[in-house]
Amino acid sequence: MLVIEDNGCGIKASDLSRVFEKGFTGSNRNKANATGMGLYLSKKISDKLGLKLDITSKEEEYTRLTVTCPKGTVHNFSE
After folding, report:
1. Would the pLDDT of 45 be above 70?
2. Beta 2-6 vs 52-58: how paired, if at all?
3. Residue spans per domain, the chain
4. Gap between the Cα atoms of 19 and 44, Å rounded
5. What is the pTM of this model?
6. What are 52's strand-pairing partners?
7. What one-character DSSP code corresponds to residue 65?
8. Rounded Cα distance, 63 and 72, in Å
9. Sheet of 2-6: strands edge to edge?
């Protein structure tokens, strides 16, 4: 598992189910420079690679994205 966490503005609980939708930027941020493509593309790529993305967040505290690699799919390229 790879866990990526920040201590930014967080995501509203009502928005969490939509964060992987194309063009969704949430309701608690300045949308001037937002495209809503980052998490959408991350999810599309993860699906193609067989990875699982999970996101949790607490507004005004943190957002945590967990990338899970299925057991038996990790390769050792140093050999």
Report:
1. yes
2. unpaired
3. 2-68
4. 12
5. 0.78
6. 68
7. E
8. 28
9. 2-6, 62-68, 52-58
pLDDT tens sequence across 18-42: 999 999 988 766 667 788 899 999 9
CB 40 within 8 A of CB 22: yes
Which homologous superfamily does the CATH classification assign to the domain defined by 2-68?
Answer: Histidine kinase-like ATPase, C-terminal domain (3.30.565.10)
Contact present, 43 and 10 (Cβ < 8 Å): no
* pLDDT tens digit sequence for 50-75: 899 999 999 999 999 999 988 776 66
Residue 31 CA to residue 41 CA, distance in Å, equals 18
Q: DSSP string of 45-57?
A: HHHHHT-EEEEEE
Assess contact for 8 and 62: CB atoms under 8 A.
yes
Write down how long the chain is: 79
User: What pLDDT score was predicted for residue 8?
Assistant: 87
